[in-house]
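User: Can you model how phosphoenolpyruvate sits in this protein?
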Amino acid sequence: MSGLGISAPRLLLRKLHQVMAGHGDAEQRLNEIVRLIAGNMIAEVCSCYLRRAGDVLELYATEGLKKNSVHQTRLRFGEGLVGDIAARARPLNLSDAQSHPQFAYRPETGEEEYHSLLGTPILRGGRVIGVLAVQNRTRRSYTDEEVEALQTVAMVVAELVSSEQMVASTEFSDAAGNATLPHHINGRVLAEGLGAGVALLHEPRIEVVHAISSNRAMEMARLNSAVNALQSSVDKLLIATNTLFKDESKEIFEAYKMFAHDKGWLKKLQEAVNSGLTAEAAIKRVQDDTRARMKEITDPYLRERLSELDDLANRLYLHLDGRSQIDRRNLEKDTVVVARNMGAAELLDYDRRRLKAVVLAEGTRSSHVAIVARALGVPVVGQCADVRDNVEQGDLMLVDGEHGQVFLRPGDDVRQAFSRSQRQRAQQQAKYAALRDKPNISKDGVPLKLNVNAGLLIDIDHFPELGADGIGLFRTELQFMVRSQMPKVDEQTELYSRVLDKMDKKPVVFRTLDIGGDKLLPYLKTKPEENPALGWRAIRIGLDRPALLRSQLRALVQAAAGRELSLMFPMIAEVAEFQEAKLLLNKELTRAAQRKDGPPTKVNVGTMIEVPSIVWQLPHLLKEVDFISVGSNDLMQFFFAVDRGNPKVSDRYDTLSPSLLLLLRNIAEHCEQAGKPFAICGDIAGRPLEAMALLGLGYRNFSMSSETLGRVKEMALSADISKLQNFVRGLCQSRDHSVRDQLRAFARDHSIII
Ligand code: PEP
Ligand code: MG
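Assistant: Here's the modeled complex, given as structure tokens:
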């Protein structure tokens, strides 16, 4: 056949257009369409199945199969090859259809003579509303152009079916999606909680309402003006980034610019319009082509580039007719946002009342979006690689941010089980809330400090509800990350003052900027690094760029004028680094002493213990600091040499491994001997079993995400530390991979609630 490649289907499209505009009822026109397709694709058969109530596909028109099977042959979604195409919402291209395990023989159709089959779903508004298939007697494989062409024709059929209401819209159930089968995805918990709502694609998909153009010149003009708008918006972005963004951030925008101006890409779009498609259909067509290429490419760099092209098609679509972005601030229904990945600022764009969960194809627990989501109490499940391929806007989604599971289009059983879990969780939360005013004292009367980690003002707003003693870790970098430019000293001062004001004398430990690694500031010049976690980050940046660190210290000192200030430095690897940082602080304190407002009344200066090397200098360090706080996330990463952001290895070693416990005990022992306060503020402080072990190791001051405070408090109130102590210290000598089971058994035997 001549093929219906991107430049050749003009004739067919013109004929289809005549049919669409012509007389006759919808079924007659559908018959005419399948006849035209069969003729054009030199196929012996072309059949159109439409969706009826109850997820059934009914044969509506055929060229080639027995005519009396029309309206008789019915297949359930998932049944036979046609049902499979509908259920998966994917084209199927088979040279020997009958040998396919899904093949379901329907004698009334007479299709046993046909060997090859090419079928594609008919989609409307992202929903499968039917299947279009061609068949040939010979065993042939259909070309990519033919697959694309059939998809284009399916767009036209979709238009006919809905404009003529060939099937009542009520027959398409609302809960059914693109692929209609329930789908379950395992991911990773990035932020705890349970959330349910309808899917909203962060990167919206292109919806084609009219596939065939009635006025080619007009469609070309629409396309061209959208292209111009896209190009100028990308150019503007680049100009803005030239001053603010440097190096690798700029590269991303340069790549966008390159693609937006890419002649090949633009030519393809124009050719598609020239072939008779509307601008929307042309963009979709070219995007489908990019996606098909993406599937075959394994090279991560190239895949990334192609996915930029994919994003660009979405952006172009948004520029058609001057349409703008979806209104993220006003969502109509409870919503689950689905994205490849997103920045913290983008998350903050969404309407908080309606945003129930986020599902990411990528993302790690320590990514900005995850940290901010935890602060907001929005559950996030990440690393769901194929989520975007399986979800359609409007699909019901249940997000289990306790176990890292996502349920797409769930059946009744799953929905009921999920509602039960939500109820249980609400009861748990109520139970924790009831504990709020109880003093933080263990069962055997040991006073404890239960603090929370924070970083956004919203955290402080919620602070009074938590029953926490204070903020044990204020991650100042979050404020830097959610901005498009470096906050000035005044702005920082104002922010820190507000934190201190709102906390009303309750303790807050500010951590100085911990950027680098995966926490990149778009406006800070950094070179791409091979091992960013081991690279130029945290205090290393602060000491190499003293002006940056000093401006932050100045803001902190000014904000705390006349009151107490506690601050700590991240990633200190040797005493000399602490001394250098302290020197910068002293300069700011001297400066503040000469100012009208004066210095803070008291300054407590500490370090985080995150790099194992500093543990060997603790006797020296403890002479110089006022306190220390163990950052177990990084400490564990460096101790075991496991990248905390790499899912392949991040769980390889247990947080309850004897060697890590021994290290933590060692730190505690040094501090006890030196009489210096010590705390722990990594993720393990917020896990009841781990926190129980920490109590046994001597830790009394914990700082955790607010979400986990209730659980840890419940555990602590039920724990008899005197009994725990010997047991846990004994476990440090174990040779096992983990002592988790032993700790669980201890908790059970001693009625400790974990
Ligand atoms: C840590 O490393 O444990 C820590 C608390 O810091 P962050 O998670 O912000 O790196
Ligand atoms: Mg850290």
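A couple of observations from the model: Residues 1-8, 173-178, 241-250 have pLDDT under 50 and may be disordered. The radius of gyration is 31 Å.
User: Helpful, thanks.
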